[in-house]
Batch of 3 targets.
Target 1
Amino acid sequence: MNEKLNNQRQNFRVAALLPLEVHKVPKHMAGDLSCELLEALEPAESGPMPVTSGSDEIVQWMNALSQKLDKIIALLQTERTFSEASALRKCQVSISTSGMSFETREPYNTQDILGIKTMLTIQNHPVPMQLYGQVVYADRVGDRNKVAVNFIGLGEDLQNRIAHFVLQREQEMLG
């Protein structure tokens, strides 16, 4: 019984409007794919600067400067991420930790492997990611194609981030 409840929670889906770029992965590249966070500028480690000489005031000033530079880098990263995401087409999706479904003009077939570039916003922070999924459902609906994929190569970190996004969306819908 507990296992059934865990599976239901793990696969809970929410609707969301996400920036999305989808492409078919060529068969020769589909062997060992891993979902990943997209490149981000990492702030330098905060802490004591390796100043070997000088007064305590200089060391404090250098540490304060380092912290300010970390904040500037974080702001630039956020701006760059939102700029890149705004270039992606917004798409209504249904997402869970196991996969997602969406509509597209491009036809895909069951068993195709798709690369999906998207960005989730978690606690007001953009989280750009490259996901991979195997098509488990594909159907033509008018001039659109309804596609559902199961994620492949999704590590625990990304799975937890998606779960956090799903719970956040659920709270937004209830609140």
Target 2
Amino acid sequence: MAIQGVSGNSAQAVVYGSSTSVVQAARREKGSARAEKEESARSQSRQLSAEEQRQVRDLQATDSRVRAHEQAHIAAGGGLVEGGATFTYATGPDDKRYAVAGEVSIDTSPGRTPEETIPKAQRIRDAALAPADPSPQDRSVAAAATQMEGNARAELSAQRRSEAQGKDEREGAGLYLGVEKNGRPSLGRSLNVFA
């Protein structure tokens, strides 16, 4: 039986024999291609100058920091995170890509009510400041979240004052009319003013 195939080097090879020998030949070819790739990577790393090797180490350290930074946002953001992290890459002298910047999108919209907005703003601030080294953008998001929380607290306080004032006015009107809460006249509690 003859089978024609294309090897990893785009050269045609003809293999004769049983299907078992075809599989074995493919495994040998795959294994040798893998070994060649590994050897090429080793020899390429040996060909890097001392300066290039330093650049690679710096890029590897930056990549680790950037990924840890964005992962901290994701872990603290929980349900506020919209999708995963996105990264900006740089290619090193070893032709590998390294993350040099990243971002995580977080829902920073206020809640429907002040009661919903306050804890949401706190979670936004916590997510923004979660990394050990928050960026200026992270600090800006945290400041905006703090402002949002303050506005929600002020709105909630105004609502409560308004509700309390409305209650006082309703009770005051009942006393002015000389009527208790149960609707019966109140003796001796009314005030007559004559001008």
Target 3
Amino acid sequence: MNDRNARDRIIQISIQMIQEKDYNKITTNHIARKAGVSIGTLYYHFENGKPDIIKEIVRRGYAEFLDEINLSNLTIETLPDFLKAFLKRYLEQHKENKSLLVAIEMAYLSNRKVFQDFEYIQNELKLVPLISRVLKQLGYPDKEDLEGISKFLLYSIDSIIHRHVICEDLLIKDEELVKTLSEMIFRFIKFSGN
């Protein structure tokens, strides 16, 4: 098995195992054995073991999600419909991968310092610059704090979606959440840009 195949196999098996078992009950030895690789190969590809595997799963998930987004015709007039469609798909993706989402949260809570570099995902995928570019495209003033505003939007959306998925619609139904979030973001962009 070549390096790329081994890495992909480890990710594939990890996802499968996380969906079948509790994240904390899975060990790197279990993953390596089921993936058909040595423990040394696993640690060669994922130096910190499970936390690095989780980070790679998240990175791939974001990359796949971002590939689906078309921002070319986005205007302030089309923004409300775009936000609803975007948030609906974002929520669906998180719900489809709830066991992975819970595993990510557990990994973070059990070893926060390993995730101190978690911003690498956002840096690699250029999520904050992407949001900043969208804000500029929509006529948002080129303020010094545009990066901070973009991070705020990204973290707010992500945090709210995570809580909603983990709490299983405890407070609000999916449709209401998408509508409320899209209205909140639209108003934020429209009124704070003036």
